[in-house]
Amino acid sequence: MVKAVVAGAAGGIGQPLSLLLKLNPLITELSLYDVVNSPGVAVDLSHINTPAQVKGFLPENNGAEEALKGADIVVIPAGVPRKPGMTRDDLFVNAGICATLAQAIANAAPKAFILVISNPVNSTVPVFAEVLKKSGAYDPKRLFGVTTLDVVRAATFVSSVVGKPLDAPKYNVPVVGGHSGATILPLLTQSEPQIPAAILNDQAKRDALIKRIQFGGDEVVEAKNGGGSATLSMAQAGAHFANLVIQAAFAGKTTVVQSYIDLEAAPGGKGVQKEIGSDLAYFSVNVELGRDGVQNILPIGNIDDQEKTLLAAAVKELGPSIEKGVQFTPAPP
Ligand code: NAI
């Protein structure tokens, strides 16, 4: 019996994400919260003959907390997406929305796994942590910034450059760091299957591949031409990540994924801080998922000199974004 909640469920990501969660047979209860349209989305999805019982909630009558009561996992794509020319940092307006949702989770579902999709993830995850800390409801093992779309894109783009696009599902290219531009660090040298040396040693090809993974989101923003950012691919990535968290917590299936987390969540975080040469509090790392969420933080591992240079750039850019999230003061309710 797993209860999942989507906050921002009527949006571009929220609707397909809710659909994919409705199709997950492990979910028995699905609550959809949004400031608009969530009851309609809920009734629509409720006709699908899968186990999850779907209900929609609006802010009226304390709707957020009603939706969240008893939640095991909350997935959050609430907020404004990018328009052409905007960076994810321009979305810091979403910090207020995140703080409000964090408070509602602290009040109604303090033990839930929290999966943050709302951008800028590099800052919104610290915003969640700070609000939860103030309510005494913070468990760093249970808070995740969803960077799965970067990992999904890396597999797709790498398989294409290697000339094996049909093998995209077989590729596993770890992506660490953060979730915007230069903070996104794809570890091409750790790709499985390996990327042929002829490609890795071709500087122009390698640079183009890294840039495409780092700025893949811009391709979508530009193609949608004012109509928003990635929604369908993000919904798939978010539902996949949610499923892995659920499988680890409720079906005993441990996996290793990358996610942007508090490095204090598990002892391995100190080792990562040594590897990155910084005491950054948050980083997207290799996370072993278990019953309580983050079970173990694994090392980044061997990287080459070019990746070390990119790592230094990622660390430099992440610091201020984390600080911005930590320092954010929500408006009084
Ligand atoms: P959207 O505008 O289509 O949907 C956002 C939804 O949030 C809307 O339905 C809106 O009514 C709702 N909302 C606004 N304030 C709310 C509140 N206080 N409580 C609950 N719901 C609220 O936007 P879209 O395209 O779905 O993107 C959502 C967020 O996800 C954006 O911040 C976007 O940048 C981010 N994103 C993150 C990605 C990642 O890899 N982590 C990838 C793509 C987008």
Automatic annotation (TrEMBL):
An annotated GO cellular component:
cytosol
Q: Where does NAD(+) bind?
A: 8-14, 34, 94, 117-119, 234
> Where does the record place the Lactate/malate dehydrogenase C-terminal domain?
147-328
Entry keyword Oxidoreductase: yes
Provide the reaction this enzyme catalyses: (S)-malate + NAD(+) = oxaloacetate + NADH + H(+)
| Main EC class the enzyme belongs to | oxidoreductase
Gene Ontology BP terms: malate metabolic process; tricarboxylic acid cycle
Domain (Lactate/malate dehydrogenase N-terminal): give its ranges: 3-145
Spell out the catalytic residues: 179 (proton acceptor)
Tell me the NCBIfam families matching this sequence.
Answer: MDH_euk_gproteo
- What binding partners and quaternary form does the record give? Homodimer.
Q: What is this protein called?
A: Malate dehydrogenase
Species name:
Vanrija pseudolonga
